[in-house]
Design a protein that fits this description.
The chain is mostly helical. 56% of the residues lie in helices and 4% in strands. It has a three-stranded antiparallel sheet, with no helix packed on it. The longest helix has 20 residues. The chain starts with a helix and ends with a helix.
Length: 295
């Protein structure tokens, strides 16, 4: 069974082109599933019954996993079984009729514009790392990029004259995102004054570099954000993704079209973008008063 899972993960990577993070998530979920089956005495995937999958999901619920986590695990199992059917490795799709628990979508946590200003002003502009940190924070808030997209931006992806950055999102899809004057100024200063020193004479094409002259990692960016959240004395729980949430929320609060925000975020489905429409009641009243024929 483990060899079949490995073949499935290779299929996701090489044929479907899914991101490494998505593949790791599938791998973790399926590893738990296979471990459960083996512990239950099931050594052949063809002999797995629907009740076996249901029992596994119930064990996850008993272990305290949320409905969202269980639904994502079931999605991984269903995708695995579809792959086995597709490649004629299995005759019956045991998982097809199982229903997923309804996902509960929580509202994304967003910063206020005042909090964003405090956070983006926190890096010290007097040293190399401060210039790098300021530029990376400005760019991720200006564009709403995912962290994985930000750290993979290269110098060739950046157009400072026009104010655009090209990034590669989920599924390898490319998109071009504009950014404003403040982000451009921070990037210009970083590229001119700090990046050449961080390169250490190495031919590194990535935009944001570490002290060792290598590409910044997701973990180092996360630690950097946590450091500046503390420096700015922001009491909310803030992750790098919070800046993406804030980007979308602030655009919609100021009247941006939902389809435009969808394009900027790189969402394949507009329903994913709609979660950001939790704009304030005062703004809803203002829009109603402004546009309704009988205010």
């Amino acid at each position: 069974m483990r060899e079949l899972v490995e073949a499935f993960l290779n299929y996701l990577s090489f044929e479907r082109g899914l991101s490494q993070n998505t593949i790791l998530a599938y791998s973790r979920d399926l590893a738990k599933f296979i471990q459960y089956l083996e512990a239950s005495g099931a050594g052949d995937i063809a002999k797995v019954k629907r009740q076996d999958i249901t029992n596994f999901l119930m064990s996850l619920k008993d272990a305290g996993l949320s409905g969202n986590s269980i639904a994502r695990t079931l999605a991984a199992i269903k995708a695995f079984f579809r792959f086995l059917i597709q490649d004629n490795l299995l005759k019956e799709d045991t998982a097809s009729l199982l229903e997923s628990p309804k996902l509960i979508r929580s509202l994304p946590n967003a910063l206020t514009t005042v909090e964003v200003d405090r956070l983006l002003s926190a890096p010290a502009a007097r040293d190399w790392m401060g210039l790098r940190d300021k530029a990376s924070l400005e760019l991720i808030y200006a564009t709403g990029m995912r962290v994985s997209e930000l750290i993979n931006v290269t110098m060739d992806n950046l157009n400072l004259d026009v104010g655009f950055v090209k990034c590669r999102g989920k599924g390898g899809k490319e998109r071009i995102i504009p950014f404003g004057r403040k982000a451009r100024r921070a990037l210009e200063r970083y590229i001119q004054d700090a990046r050449p020193r961080l390169m250490k004479n190495k031919a590194e094409g990535h935009l944001f570099l570490t002290r060792l002259g290598k590409k910044m990692s997701r973990q180092s960016f996360w630690k950097m954000v946590r450091h500046y959240v503390k420096t700015a004395r922001i009491k909310k729980e803030v992750t790098p993704h919070t800046l993406r949430h804030s980007f979308a929320t602030h655009l919609l609060e100021r009247g941006a079209d939902l389809r435009v925000v969808q394009e900027l975020l790189g969402h394949a489905d507009i329903s994913t973008t709609q979660i950001y429409t939790h704009i304030s009641k005062d703004r809803l009243k203002l829009i109603h008063k402004q546009f309704h024929p009988r205010p």
